[in-house]
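Handout, page 2. Input:
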Amino acid sequence: MSVAFRRDSDEEHLEPKFELPLPSGPNLVTARGKTLIDERIAALEAEQPNADEDRRTQIARELRYWNTRRITAVLAPVPPADEVAFGSRVRFRLNGKEQELTIVGDDEADPAAGKIAFSAPLARAMMGAMAGEAVAFNGRADAVEVLGVRPD
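Output:
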């Protein structure tokens, strides 16, 4: 039989499992973000003893990611009360629609819950702005009007 038709096991044909990618840049976190990292690690460690072999492999991979995120976490200072910064709750108008978002770390981001990462284009555009200012976004000089800012 030709070697092309012979296979010793399915293991050699599985897709490789790469490490979970780490976001580039600093690992800034809010106090809530640091707590979420700790809770995620605790949940994975609690699940690990009762998991089957495949799941234990997944858990080990996830734990490597979250432990790295915990080690590299930098607790951001409390943001100023009047300027958009990491940890700020921002009320703004974009395309005629009023919205409110909190600027948080990459792992804490949840756009559906009103939390965007500080690395997101919208957050980067608003950083440093104060209430009443218009900032450039998506090629428009006055696309975003900052209506209010407060620490979250």
